[in-house]
Amino acid sequence: MSNPIDPKLHEQLQKLQQKYDVMGQDLSSYLDGLLYSDYLTYWDYIHLDTLLSLQTPKTHFKDEKVFIVYHQITELYFNLILWEIDQIVEQTNLTEKFFCERMDRMINYFRQLVNSFGVMVDGMDRNQFLKFRMSLLPASGFQSGQYRMIEICSTDMINIVNTDDRKSMTDVDDINRLLEKLYWRSGATELATGKKTLTLKQFEEKYIEDFKTLGEKHRDRNLRKIYLKNFPNSEEVKKRLREFDELANVRWPLAHLKSAARYLQKDPEDIRATGGTNWQKYLPPRFQKIIFYPELWNETEKQEWGKAGLNFGQ
Ligand code: HEM
Question: Which atom of ligand 1 has the smallest separation from the CA of 283?
Fold first, then answer.
């Protein structure tokens, strides 16, 4: 004699029946499907085999794998940051609590990235790097679309225009003009000729239309605009935006710069192993002075922006 059906199970079956009835579906067929389907495994769920098939070094140098994997890790964190920004932007009835919780997550992701940069700085043999890097030209982390998207969603576009034009531009709503003057477009010019680098040209070809669409979408709904509209006086919000600003525009760039200095520093010839920028003039955050939330910093802090050793977050 079969056991009577557990009342809890019975209730669940009734709820399922209702759910499938609404859509005109036959519950019994779906239960058959459940009967025949395999149990989910960890490796299928996270697509482990696919994930581990995505590292394809271009050379035989062992340390190239470290280089690829750490870039991929960074892109995944960038993706999580964009995911959180999107939640803030899309939230109807946005509360301070929701905003702060999402900011905390983004801050945490950026902290992980800053703290793990040693994987690059100390984790590869310099001679191997200088060799395998030559076979990757003209590709460069400069072409990270997600990095630029974080910038576009975090602030008004005028704040990511190159320093000179930022001061003089009057029409801060002319998206085409703003796009033209983004700091990284001005920065990626060939040392000798002043022409756009191939790295930049290819990057623009792939992404510039996407950046324009994103810029238009976030013109009135970027993190800065959202904060000014909803929580202009909240100390909790300001504290988090300051830390985010510092992480994105000082601490990460400085951690990254350490890699460039470690691998490219000694010989001017090493410049060949980059996407073509004059990186010593381009990468240090004190030159670009990108600040997402300028109203949250005093004049001294802005002047000192990007100089190592300052504790901006406190
Ligand atoms: C040994 C490690 C690294 C070195 C030597 C290095 C070197 C450079 C250099 C020289 C540039 C300037 C553009 C160019 O001329 O190519 C650059 C830009 C950039 N790299 Fe790296 N990089 C390293 C690791 C990484 C990693 C792991 C990421 C993570 C995605 C990354 C992301 C970027 C980004 C986003 C830029 C543009 C920065 C900006 O426009 O302000 N880099 N890198």
Answer: 41
